[in-house]
Amino acid sequence: MSVNARGGISPQGGRGLTLALATMAVLMMVFYAVIFPFYEGRAIVLFLFVASGILLLCLAVLLHPSCFLIMVSSFLTLGFLFKAVANLCLGVGLIEPVGDFTGSAAQWDMALEFAAAGQFGGVASIILASFIPSSGRIITRDASDQRVLGNILFGALALLMIVATCIYALNYRYNILRIGYPLGIDIHPRVYAVLAFILTWGALLGGLALTQWLIELGRLRYASLILVATFLGFLSSLTMGSRVQFLLYILSSVCIVLWRWRNVHRWMEIVYALCIASALFVVSIAVVSIERNYAFQGNHSIVVRAPSPNTGPPPLVGGADAPEQSDRLALRLPTTSSPLPAGEAARASPTFKSQQPAAPLGDTESLATKFTVVTSKSRLSGLLQELRNLVLMRWIGLEGVLTAEGAERELGSDLLLRGLTEDPAAGKNGIYQKMAGDPYGKVEVFTFLTLPGVIGVASYSGSIPLIFGFVFGTMLAGHLLEWFACSLTRSVAVGAVSGVSLAYLTVQMGFPWTLFIYALELCLACAALGGFWFASRRLATLRI
């Protein structure tokens, strides 16, 4: 939209606004018409649900106040509107437990009212955030003649890659942060917090920030952002046992490229880099799926050593997709019998099956042996179903409000307050785990959790205004944190990684405290990057 000299909207801007409004209206009608024949509740509730979902996504894209708001809106749309279409219209089963939700028309109405209130809260935050976009804190640095500065940044990038590779290797060896697996080494909680941050987002944050600075100095090209993200994402995915982490890393790098698209002159290099990323993603998702299916669905136990009493599991600071549920725990939900939960895995509880020293993961059986077992006739169909579910049904959203509505008698502001202050160490004994039916309470060694998501947590209140206000405040806070990160570093890379990571962890919310801890770590990391940039420029100026 453009404004003329008199402060009015120009004809071009007026036509663009008209087209945008018409597009949103058409999308609302299409989604409403598709779902309505299969929905037994009230028509007005369904319309509000559809309208809020379309507005959330479209306004985020049109106003683009921050990477965070675009990403969280996209993730919520996948988890609510598109998942509702898949479940209600196409009969695709939900893969998360929904507690006492029975599927009556009245319960569906209340659940969709919760979802609509949360989505409208997101819409309000997007409108307000558009007045203070995070992109306003980004500047282009014209320092192509500073060779010394470029050499310093190259050295820092090389060192970061080496250190990150070593930490990822340690992660694979000792399960520092591996989905579903208990910690395999005694480690101080503060050291653990730092390593976990590096494993999940820290290495990517530093790697892409350094790469972007080198691009602005004319020492690298934009395709290098995707290559760096591909290298770190491949290691992260394999060692964490996560199938979505790789995609999130690549998404962060692509966001930077799109943010700077006017400065990209060699688009074929971007295409080649994306092809490399795609090939490695196929490899990573195959390896991770085979290993997870072999471990979690084959009833294999892992021998681990219990950590010392003062090394209780610190809060999880990273996000990843969750391990599959064991075959012996397959649930019969009102809408599905699929054994694959979509949530995030948390750390195992301090009680383990064995007190023997930890065995290195992956050393007991070769990948070829695991491949043979997993691809047998009895297991292959389940593996293929899991991979299909990863496309849409693994996104957190709809199940959270369904579960909350099923526990309607327990809801209230007191429950919301308890949820906000709940200790992540509660794990399987957490509020939402009990609300969802404690599906993984009897699982030993591995730790699986089902997640409510940000709107699901807000639904603890059972109050439409509180749900609206909670989601509004949470999304606005995430936007302001990205704005703050950009202000500290003036780097588009830092903004993109901060936005994507915060959006994913917000949508994956289970224990709000863990998101707060990550936000603090992110602020500290951004402050360190800003200080490093300032110190590097000073050092280059001194010609030392």
Topology:
Elements: H1 11-35, H2 43-63, H3 67-89, H4 105-129, H5 147-174, H6 189-216, H7 223-240, H8 245-259, H9 267-296, H10 367-374, H11 377-391, H12 398-406, H13 413-420, H14 431-435, H15 453-458, H16 464-489, H17 492-507, H18 512-542
Measured distance between first and last alpha carbons: 49 Å
Mean pLDDT: 81
The low-confidence runs, each spanning 5 or more residues with pLDDT under 50, are: 1-10, 299-363
Tally of contiguous helical segments: 18
Beta-strand portion reads under 5%
Query: How would you describe the shape?
Result: globular
> Which structural class matches the secondary elements?
mainly alpha
How would you characterize the largest beta sheet?
Answer: none
Helix content: 55-70%
List the helices and strands in order.
HHHHHHHHHHHHHHHHHH
Output the radius of gyration: 23 Å
Using DSSP, what is the number of strands?
A: 0
Describe this structure in words.
The protein is mainly alpha-helical and 544 residues long. 62% of the residues lie in helices and 0% in strands. It has 18 helices and no strands. Helix 8 (245-259) packs across helix 17. The radius of gyration is 23 Å and the shape is globular. It starts with 10 loop residues before the first helix and ends with a helix. The relative contact order is 0.15. The model is unreliable at 1-10 and 299-363 (pLDDT under 50).
